[in-house]
Amino acid sequence: MKTTSWFSLYKMLIRTSIRSRMQYKFNFIMGSVLAALIQISEFLMVALVLHKFGAIKGWSLHEIGYLFAIMTLSKTLYRTFGNEVHHLEKYLVGGELDQLLTRPMPVLLALLPQNFRIMAGEVLQGGFILCWSLAGIMHSGQIGWTVIPFSLLVILTGAIILFSIGLATATLGFWTTRIEELQTITEDAARTAAQYPLTLYPKWMSGILLTVIPVGFVNYVPSLYLLRGELGAWVLVAIVVVAVLSLAASLRFWKFGLTKYQSTGS
């Protein structure tokens, strides 16, 4: 019964956040368009290089487009529902977390709906590249239509893994307070690196991206099976297990970190 009431309160907070953002519709539309243009220009730069020199380490333009799109959509799903985890530092520095501690619901559940984002531009851009990539690969006969529903599963598990990494990094802020530089490494840099085949990197680096910061399980590992038929169907089970274990571990770490929180007094 308590869980149901928390969920109802969570939905109400999301609706309130959305209504506040939609008060400025022009800013929302322009922000969505600019976000889509910025994201797609990044991929176009890679596409131009591949068009000129061909495949990279045996990965075609459409395959790399698939990696790029899956990572983009997974990140978009994570940031839509969990964006404030990435901005926990401002709550720690400004003492705003104290306000959330007084609410009659778990702190994390109160934090997530704050400044809820509708990332329409990223969805359009990632969706377009995903459809284009799948169409190209299917046209070559490399894959069948069954890859489409499995790709949706990959996006979901990828979002959970990225959220878990973001939550674990944010939790370190209970000891360090400042976490922006660390997030640049664990979230931004790691995610950018995983937009491309991990075979491009030294073994020690690809090992880190598969174990310490498991962004490789967001798109690279499942693509080996879905696009190339490598490893085996167990990969789909593995990414679900990694997502569940990552989420459980990060939530446990968060709960422990809360016990170490000290208010700024502001």
UniProtKB/TrEMBL annotation:
Keywords (A to Z) from UniProt: Membrane, Transmembrane, Transmembrane helix
Residue intervals passing through the bilayer: 28-50, 123-141, 147-175, 208-227, 233-254
Keyword Acyltransferase: no
InterPro entries on file: ABC-2_transporter-like (IPR010390)
Domain of life of the native organism: Bacteria
PANTHER family the UniProt entry points to: INTEGRAL MEMBRANE TRANSPORT PROTEIN, SLR0610 PROTEIN-RELATED
Protein name (database record): ABC transporter permease
Source species: Paenibacillus xylanivorans
Lineage: Bacteria, Bacillati, Bacillota, Bacilli, Bacillales
